[in-house]
Amino acid sequence: MAAAESRLMALLSRSAPPLDPSAPLLDAREVAVEIGGKRILHAADLRVAAGELVAIVGPNGAGKSTFARAVAGLQRTSGGSVRWSGVDVGQLPGRRLAQLRAFVPQRSRVPDGVTVREAVRIGRSPHIKPLGRMMQADHEAVERAIARAGVERFAERKLTTLSGGELQRVQVAVGLAQEAPLLMADEPTSHLDLGATATLAKLLRGLTSDGLAVILVVHDLSLAAAVADRVVVIASGRSVASGPPADVLVRERLAEVWQVDAALETRPDGHTALHVAWLGRQERQSEAFAAEGAAADPPA
Ligand SMILES: Nc1ncnc2c1ncn2[C@@H]1O[C@H](COP(=O)(O)OP(=O)(O)OP(=O)(O)O)[C@@H](O)[C@H]1O
Fold it and tell me: Is the minimum distance from the CB of 239 to ligand 1 under 6 angstroms?
């Protein structure tokens, strides 16, 4: 047998090592990523267990999406380790990985001519055998995902005709149809209005009540504080803090990482708010001085 042929046979027959149910669902340590010879991610850690919702937060360009893609096995790493139920991500063939985690991307290519229902069916494909057909259970999973993400109303519409918020909910439905034990979503609320954001927050929390794990990359810190069991802060390509939102999103850290004067308020009834000095103390003072000056100046 030619060498290339035997390599192909080995690849096709490659079976992944068995998962270790006692290991964390996801255990990522000191993950580093280089793109085009440039270090994008230096060292980021993330551990997630079943039933947990972990929010990844951090400033623009900090490396959150790169980290999420790296742990999902969608981005080559240059250092550290990523293990899913004890197995190195590099040893998990694509279909196997797709049965462990669903990934809802921040942006995705919208193919021409595909309806919402067809897109959600594609999300179910990791469960369909190669050259196989969808079974009754697969159709049911697709309909469940469509209903749970609240996209029934436009299920027959073409993806290209949807608004940004509608498309985002469809992407969540595509992820849900995968019925993986962990759902990762990169900024799934960036186009959603207040009500749709609250609905999605309840949906994600509901998944954890069903024993699933959720990783949410999100900018809205008050939302992160409301829904997450833990937050991981990424700054300049490193995870710099991890823990319960009230412990991590403290005033000093908000000032250090986001350079804003802000404080998170978490009330016992579950309401959260981020109080931000939007214009900063100095600007507000100088504005006050300007106003005082204008009042003192006699009209010309
Ligand atoms: N393919 C690429 N080529 C070059 N640079 C890249 C590439 N992908 C990401 N980067 C850079 O890596 C850094 C981290 O990007 P990433 O998208 O992970 O940040 P982020 O924290 O998710 O940002 P945001 O909150 O703005 O979405 C950014 O400076 C980005 O420009």
Answer: no
